[in-house]
Design goal:
single chain, alpha+beta, 4-stranded mixed sheet, 3 helices, 4 strands, 32% helix, globular
Length: 99
């Protein structure tokens, strides 16, 4: 499985941030993708997309990111390839919260 990450404003991420996001997204998908039949994915990719869309990834080199969309998901031979768009996510701090 290969994960590709780009930002919603097309500004390049630094390599360390991109690598960390790819790793975290890969690990989230790995739990549900590895070991499944390719036909399961091909018939219904939507549940896999729902795992990622609007999911926050916190404390990625002192910034938070959210997956904004899954641009492409496809299978090439036996390999799943996924392109996601992320945006920096600003948490709203409310009075009395510890964030």
């Amino acid at each position: 499985m290969n994960v590709y990450v780009e930002t919603s404003d097309h500004a390049p991420l630094d390599k360390v941030t991109e690598s960390e996001l790819r790793k975290r997204i890969y690990n989230d998908l790995k739990k549900v993708v590895i070991g499944r039949k390719i036909s399961d994915f091909a018939e219904s990719p939507e549940p896999y997309e729902k795992i990622l869309v609007d999911k926050p990834y916190l404390n990625v080199l002192d910034k938070d990111y959210m997956v904004q969309s899954v641009k492409w998901m496809f299978i090439a031979q036996t390999e799943l390839k996924i392109w996601v768009t992320v945006k920096e996510w600003k948490r709203i701090v409310t009075p009395g919260s510890t964030s």
